[in-house]
């Protein structure tokens, strides 16, 4: 259960109000913020005008509805709160509904970091403000992609080439502000980057001589194909491949909630294999509970533990199945915080660790640790993630002068803890992950 | 006479029921209460030779240990008291401070090679005239020996009361400036250690909150109110931050004879992550936690389990039947994962824990 704040915005579809991605250092940020703010002003006006026109405009089926919903709300709340250097004072989530000016005024008055700013507190200052909307790992990415693509798609269908301009060039510039708006809502993830790059490639490759409507249709078709091939069908292939790794009598351990792993387990169970599942869960997201209820209702024998209890149970486990947010060319897996601990313990007890991951999550970059790129969990209804038997006053929920609460959402599992990665192009050992583009037959 | 005996019996019964109902929280509390009860027992006891006294204390100890077998400090305190009593008795009888048996065993061999003796100086300098089993005056033995014994018990009590201060004595030598220290849950020993060090050094502490007890919140609050800059993180990020941590300092519930320990759940994860990153693991624990026990096979029987509703509460109604829930309270951390034990009696590597146990307890008492 995502600790979603009380916003009338639908979490899966929501690049809602934004927080800036990685924190620029103090001096530069003030400069950047001026120009960015001005640019955003302009975008807001354009978008507001567009939204007004669209409300009565042509309805293009489901995509337009979905895109239309976030758009007016996005307009209202689109200003990312200008973070000053401090991440010690996360802006409350309800501010999503305030107007631009109010948000900006408030951001300006956010307290400067405490004077006793020890080196330690500064180490994590690049994490940035927590985002207001919680997103689960495997569950959201396809949806955000769909949103991103549909958002652009809507723009594509609604778009009309100005005279004397070729479609490909102008559409690209037209799309850039939309993309940066998305990026402002949530730091650019690998999957978003891949999808957007692919789209740009398609656009620039479109034939100049085609009539405009045909070109737009072709692009929309390409987008649909991307979604179908890289996401939906990929999931099915992975489900089958990984499902074949599950034998009768297995005790499978999984961490938090990955939609791919959920499909694999349900698929294997539907084929009649007898196995039991241990679901390991942890704050801040406690997503494992949702997976647990899905598996338990399907009739799979499940055990539920929190992460610290892992040491007691790892000796019983025969296979560890986890999902990923992204995989890197050195074989490292970037996924929900806690996965690295699970993989480490499994390796110590010689349990194979299998990562289920579609190829659109592949990134050519090499990531070395969990610090350089990470996000903080949103401040939501935090009480819901604590057991109800625990007295509320004993729980620390507020930052104060010497105390800060950090909830990093992701961590990096080094390649030596991983046995294999299952993708739709095959089962790959971690040191060969760099060959995925070759396997796909084209450059990502 | 019988009223006296009754009084001490009642004290024993009270403690037994408190232990069974887990109303005594914390190993130091349990040890303190045990010493107080035993002091009452010894002061009211009637015995005409040493064996009677020892078997009396052992029977009381057995009852206490059976009330709460996972609370090892109770048994340890009983064993320590027995050791002191035997020492005092031997000193009184023979005038030298060595143990009475001359059995050839490797334990004697080891003890002979000791450069330092951990024992306190014997109370009785002169040989007392002790007559055991005197038919005319059955109480003479007890009467003469009791004051000496009471002093020995007082020593044990003093040691327990000053355990935090002694452990923190050299705190500033273990921590340097601008270090980042990771700790788990809430250990009062570690808390005192860090607070004392903070008087001399400035450093940062990251506290892992460790579900489902979430004791880390208490610790973070206590540390930050003492002016130490602290971070509170969920256990899931332990591996993620470990590359930036300089030292892991945790507390123990019990130290086992092979140098391993029982510690709050989550410690095993932190210790393993620290090993992977070559970060030193420091354990702060009082000597009363030394237990002559082994845990070779890590059975569930060695761990203690807590209430599963804090993991999966009853508000998840329809899940509760279909799902098994585990909530172990302690982890077993092997000796290869710990770098040093800081105790009130000095710092020891895990490989010399067996020697400490030899010095502190007598072989006969391993099984009460």
Automatic annotation (TrEMBL), chain A:
Oligomer status and interactors: Component of the translation initiation factor 2B (eIF2B) complex which is a heterodecamer of two sets of five different subunits: alpha, beta, gamma, delta and epsilon. Subunits alpha, beta and delta comprise a regulatory subcomplex and subunits epsilon and gamma comprise a catalytic subcomplex. Within the complex, the hexameric regulatory complex resides at the center, with the two heterodimeric catalytic subcomplexes bound on opposite sides.
Record carries keyword Electron transport: no
Protein family according to the UniProt entry: Belongs to the eIF-2B alpha/beta/delta subunits family.
Main location: cytoplasm
Record-linked Pfam families: IF-2B (PF01008)
Name of the molecule in the record: Translation initiation factor eIF2B subunit delta
Comp. bias regions, Polar residues: 23-34
Compartment(s) where it occurs, according to its Swiss-Prot or TrEMBL record: Cytoplasm, Cytosol
Basic and acidic residues composition-biased segments: 35-47
Keywords: Cytoplasm, Initiation factor, Protein biosynthesis
Start-end of Low complexity biased regions: 65-81, 93-111
Biased composition (Pro residues): 1-14
Domain of life assignment: Eukaryota
Region described as Disordered: spans on this chain: 1-113
Automatic annotation (TrEMBL), chain B:
UniProt record similarity statement: Belongs to the eIF-2B alpha/beta/delta subunits family.
Main location (coarse class): cytoplasm
Annotated keywords: Cytoplasm, Initiation factor, Protein biosynthesis
Gene3D superfamilies (alphabetical): Translation initiation factor eif-2b, domain 2
Subunit structure: Component of the translation initiation factor 2B (eIF2B) complex which is a heterodecamer of two sets of five different subunits: alpha, beta, gamma, delta and epsilon. Subunits alpha, beta and delta comprise a regulatory subcomplex and subunits epsilon and gamma comprise a catalytic subcomplex. Within the complex, the hexameric regulatory complex resides at the center, with the two heterodimeric catalytic subcomplexes bound on opposite sides.
Subcellular location: Cytoplasm, Cytosol
Statement: the UniProt record of this protein carries the keyword Cytoplasm: yes
InterPro entries: eIF2B_beta_subunit (IPR051855), IF-2B-related (IPR000649), IF_2B-like_C (IPR042529), NagB/RpiA_transferase-like (IPR037171)
Name of the protein described by the UniProt record: Translation initiation factor eIF2B subunit beta
